[in-house]
Write a structure and sequence with these properties.
- The protein has a single domain (2-139), classed as Aconitase, domain 4, CATH 3.20.19.
- It contains eight helices and seven strands.
- The protein has helices at residues 15-18, 29-33, 44-47, 68-76, 88-97, 105-109, 142-150, 153-165; strands at 2-8, 53-56, 80-83, 101-103, 116-120, 125-128, 133-136.
- The protein has a seven-stranded mixed β-sheet.
- A hairpin with a 4-residue loop joins β6 and β7.
- The protein is globular, with a radius of gyration of 16 Å.
- The mean pLDDT is 92.
């Protein structure tokens, strides 16, 4: 179960707004987190707390295929992003690093900045604790849920390979 305060944004939040290009020479997630959302919200890093949630409207993560963007968001402490729609490449990059994403129009339409939201990824249930409204996003297929639960594609692969080493499949 994830629980956090909502940081709200509009449409077309691109990867340059999430982590401006001048920081792309940095690859350490904790360093990227220091500049997360600099292109759209200079106060973000001061406001965000571990577990918080980003909500936005449409086409979140559009722009260049920048793995740094979901890394910066995850390292900043954001536990989940809920939007109406994601840019496809951002969606895949986020899943690959284990950053949970949900699409739910009703949650976006009925949640304000500062509201507290609780998210159950296994069921897709989103509860706005501030206004007591409950919404349902489509839950992940088992494979994607597995990727997210272990922290992304690299950790998932390591776990699978370790399982083979401990069996007779090698």
């Amino acid at each position: 179960m994830l629980k956090g305060r909502v940081h709200r944004y509009g449409a077309n939040v691109d990867t340059d707004a999430i982590i401006p290009a001048r920081y792309l020479n940095v690859s350490e997630p904790t360093e990227l987190a220091k500049h997360c959302m600099d292109g759209i919200d200079l106060e973000f890093v001061k406001k965000v707390k571990p577990g918080d949630i980003i909500m936005a409207t449409t086409n979140f993560g559009c722009g260049s295929s920048r793995e740094h963007a979901p890394l910066a968001i995850k390292a900043s402490g954001i536990s989940c992003i809920i939007v109406r729609s994601f840019a496809r490449i951002f969606f895949r990059n986020a899943i690959n690093i284990g950053l949970p994403l949900l699409e739910c129009d009703e949650a976006v339409d009925n949640t304000k900045a500062g509201d507290t939201v609780e998210v159950d990824l296994s069921s897709g249930r989103i509860k706005n604790l501030t206004n007591a409204k409950i919404f349902t996003a489509k839950p992940y297929p088992d494979f994607m849920a597995g990727l997210i639960s272990v922290g992304g594609l690299i950790e998932y692969t390591k776990k699978r390979l370790k399982g083979r080493e401990n069996s007779s499949e090698v």
